[in-house]
Write a structure and sequence with these properties.
There is one protein chain. By secondary structure, the protein is of the alpha+beta class. It is about 25% helix and about 30% strand. The strands form 4 sheets. Strands 6, 7, 8, 9, 10, 11, 14, 15, 16 and 17 form a 10-stranded mixed sheet that branches. The termini are far apart.
């Protein structure tokens, strides 16, 4: 069932604050009109219902400090019952690893998408926005694959979002490290994979990433942590931030991540399923960066279901 709700009951004239100078107006409206589909926002812009300093405006127009944006009233159909389940609310609150006035770092569980879309009504960011209705500027700083667990940064302020995006663009601005269990004996001397990646979309709409000469430059650094029977626990540090980078680089090196149904080895996955591995063994376990002169270091412990796989597998080191 669905019903109508009014996202913005009356016309509002919003003056652009310094934090939002330089932001595109379509992204600005997505924040002001949370819950309104992107297609509807573009429709409002095309029809001239949104005005910038009393003039019509294109979606890619960047805002300046002091600009005045006319935000029209909007009615949208919403599905009833799309709320944060009590269990998810509780688990997400307990999964907060770090929080200050401008930033949340949360230990995202495997299986939860970072945002809704493609049939997913509720992702991490939508859940947090419902849980913290007073935080009007909550935005994902970066993404994790749905099946990957671990550290995700969520900005509370536009200024923090911009600073962190700048740090992420700098190769060593944010030190992100992942733990992965890969099939086979990862060589101690194998310390990096430098292979360009190209994103492709299949006819089914599924995204696949491959190593291709004309792809985007991609570099991942690796360290062997331990070996268990038939597998190796490694730490991966993505120097660049491409889609599925660690997963594809491990596959390309000949040591696919266990539990990976897209880039993995079916026989190895079947063997480790018998040991209790029911998900992708990839976990974003640490973040370190300096923000406003403060050094922030956050670690997310390996989830119990992954720790158990290591215990059952034993150690070869």
């Amino acid at each position: 069932m669905s019903s109508e709700t009014v996202i913005n009951p009356t016309v509002r004239l919003v003056t652009v604050e310094a934090d939002y100078a330089g932001q595109r107006i379509d992204n600005f409206l997505m924040r002001e009109l949370k819950g309104v589909p992107k297609s509807r926002i573009y429709n409002l812009l095309r029809r001239g219902e949104v005005r910038l300093n009393k003039s019509r405006v294109k979606p890619d127009q960047k805002l300046a400090y002091g600009d005045v944006v006319r935000v029209p009233p909007v009615r949208v159909a919403v599905k009833e019952g799309v709320v944060v389940p009590g269990g998810l609310d509780t688990s997400l609150r307990s999964a907060i690893l770090y929080e200050d006035d401008g930033l949340i770092v949360i230990n995202k569980p495997s299986g939860l998408a970072v945002h809704g879309g493609s049939g997913i009504s509720l992702g991490l960011i939508e859940a947090l926005r419902q849980m913290y209705p007073d935080q009007r500027s909550l935005e994902l700083v970066h993404r994790l694959d749905r099946d990957t667990s671990g550290c995700v940064m969520v900005a509370k302020k536009r200024s923090v979002l911009k600073q962190l995006h700048e740090l992420l663009k700098a190769r060593k601005g944010v030190d992100k490290r992942y733990l992965a269990l890969v099939s086979g004996k990862w060589p101690v001397r194998k310390q990096q994979v430098n292979a360009p990646l190209q994103k492709n979309v299949l006819n089914s709409g599924e995204r696949m990433v491959r190593v291709e000469l004309d792809g985007k430059k991609s570099l991942t650094e690796f360290t062997l942590i331990q070996r268990i029977a038939g597998a190796s626990l490694i730490e991966a540090r993505p120097v660049t931030g491409r889609t599925h980078q660690i997963r594809v680089h491990c596959q390309y090196a000949g040591y696919p991540i266990l539990g990976d149904d897209k880039y993995g080895d079916d026989d190895a996955n079947t063997n480790f399923k018998r040991l209790g591995l029911k998900r992708l063994f990839l976990h974003a376990h640490s973040l370190a960066f300096t923000l406003d002169g403060q050094r922030i270091e956050v670690k997310a412990p390996l989830p119990p279901e992954l720790e158990k796989v290591l215990e059952v597998g034993g150690s070869e080191l």
